[in-house]
Amino acid sequence: MSDPIHTPEILEAPSDPAPTPQQKQRFKLKWPKLTMTARQYWWTTMVLLAVVPLLSFTLVEHLNYNDPWKDFTPAQIVLNLVWYYLGELFFYFLRGRRSGAVKLGLGIAWGFGCANHYLIAFRGRTLFPGDFLSLGTAANVAGNYDYSLSQRQIVTLVIMVAVILAMKTLPDEPRKKFSWKVFLPSAGVTAVFLAVFFGTSLVEKLGIEPSMWTTRGNGLFLNFSVCMKYMKVEKPDTYSQETLNTLGEDYTSDDLSVMAVNPDGTTRPVNVIVIMNESFSDLSVLPGVETNQDAMPFLRSLKENTIKGYAYSSVFGGTTANSEYEFLTGNTTAFLPAGTVPYQMYVSDGDPTLVSQMKALGYRTVAAHPYRSSGWNRPAVYANYGFDEVYFESDFQNRTYMRGDEKSGYVTDQCDYENLIRLYEEKKEGEPLFLFNVTMQNHSGYQMPWTNLPREVWLTGDLENHFQTVNQYLSLIYQSDQALEYLIHYFSQVEEPTMILIFGDHQPQVATNFYTDVLGTAPDTALAQKKQMVPFALWANYDIPEAEGVELSLNYLSSLLVDTANLPMTGYQKFLTRLRETVPAVNTVGILDAGGTWYGENEALPADLEEAIETYKVLLYNNIFDKSNRLENFFSLAE
């Protein structure tokens, strides 16, 4: 018979009415403990080690709107559970106690599930490895979201706490000494699994790919690990120096001297202002969305000297930096690992961008963002891109805020544009100015106070009174539209040729079930693209070609800007202009052909589309990952 594990008895409090601090500590009540033999304890903890990961898996996926035992394939269930068991193994060696490993594994798994639950609510997407590089950005806006616990969080929290409290009744377990005999086999099994998972094509053969927006396709920990596996980009099969040289010969960059000569005598803008407006979108593109009045009447009224339409963004509800990256570089993020943010991983000093191009053309290059500098690694990226001047929130004068004050609200678009005008007025007359502005007024969340925000636009029809967050968002867009009217009116009276491009970075994540209500739970690719659409308008205060209903993706927008401005173009921009004829739009959700057909990420492409995309991938790899062999005179203007 095994010896019973000793359980300290509850001590009675002393009779002294005023015990010393040392006595208080000494006579503190102990948690009641069960009495059991060592063998009974061993079997109990081993059963817990085996069963609690199943509970953790269930709770985490319930937090993220999944029924794991119905929604996932057996392979997905097994690969998810492996990570839970490896976590327990790690915590066992860390703590030296089986009970401690179980409690830590359960608590930390629930914490990750809860974080992912908030990400789905706030951003409409799941947790990615790159999010841990974005903690500074997340901290910037963390106070502007609603963190009240949902029913799912409360239920799973109660279950988790109940299990942990129940385990506290087990006898105190002595800490195990480190044993190489136990560690080496455990490490060996772990190493074999990691080598197979990350070093072979097992995951691909099982048909498991990264899920961008939710974990429904894989499960939280499997999806996270698959994204880590895919963080390394493989070289395209057709990648070769010969292929690159041919492309460089087919699409030659214009010479810088073209800017000075201008043989055609065409008008070129002295001022080029680009505004990427935060969460600026037109919800009327979604089926069944009706409002009491148009949220963007001025933008819709623009016709003279205007090219406008919709751009398809690669992100939704957040990750603004990826839209910024696509515009400034012409590189799509569609073929990068899911969840990665190039601003945090792939940008180097001297990378060719629209900024360096405008600078080479003699423009003074300025970046302005009325928020904190810690978001998305922008100070380092803007330095690498070569901006002459960079302004953040504290540099904006006479700041006015909406939905709060300086601590809790966001600088208004009106104030933002007033500061852009100030920068224009302070420059020397005739000095070429390229100004890139990222606004902040419309940033989520949309349950914030209505401070300084009039209720102008709201949902009507079947959706009326169902989504107050959407109503706040619509009223914000109405204010943005009025601010744009102010900006356009000002520059319409300026003598210097001026071109203004405004576009949204992504649609808003206004409410968890808003988009499922209007698009359904499993929309096809064409319908899913409705939530990727953002408006754009390219306007000038002089004669330019006019067009409406233009559809493209954000990676093409800077080429359209340069072409319309009659500025010298790089070979890459000429390639993108030609590519747009075959592939009008490409983003993380799908590819659009010239006939208007959308193809999802797992659908086979027609031969001409496949060839065009493969060529694009070759150039992307050369520009982003093979920088030592980059075709500099192709991605930059010739000198």
Question: How would you sum up this structure, described in words?
Answer:
The protein has two domains: 33-229, no CATH class; 270-551, 3-Layer(aba) Sandwich (Alkaline Phosphatase, subunit A), CATH 3.40.720.10. It is globular, with a radius of gyration of 29 Å. The protein is 44% helix and 10% strand. Helix 2 packs parallel to helix 5. It is α/β, with parallel strands linked by helices and 639 residues long. It is built from 25 helices and 15 strands. It has helices at residues 21-26, 38-63, 68-71, 74-95, 98-123, 135-141, 151-167, 180-199, 202-205, 220-229, 241-250, 257-261, 297-301, 320-329, 342-345, 354-360, 378-385, 413-426, 468-492, 514-519, 525-528, 557-564, 571-582, 607-624, 632-635, and strands at 271-277, 290-291, 306-312, 364-368, 389-391, 401-402, 410-411, 433-438, 459-460, 498-504, 533-540, 547-553, 585-586, 590-592, 598-600. Residues 1-16 and 22-29 have low confidence and may be disordered.
Topology of helices and strands:
Layout: H1 21-26, H2 38-63, H3 68-71, H4 74-95, H5 98-123, H6 135-141, H7 151-167, H8 180-199, H9 202-205, H10 220-229, H11 241-250, H12 257-261, E1 271-277, E2 290-291, H13 297-301, E3 306-312, H14 320-329, H15 342-345, H16 354-360, E4 364-368, H17 378-385, E5 389-391, E6 401-402, E7 410-411, H18 413-426, E8 433-438, E9 459-460, H19 468-492, E10 498-504, H20 514-519, H21 525-528, E11 533-540, E12 547-553, H22 557-564, H23 571-582, E13 585-586, E14 590-592, E15 598-600, H24 607-624, H25 632-635
Parallel strand pairs: 1-8, 1-10, 3-12, 4-5, 4-8
Antiparallel strand pairs: 2-9, 3-11, 6-7, 10-11, 13-14, 14-15
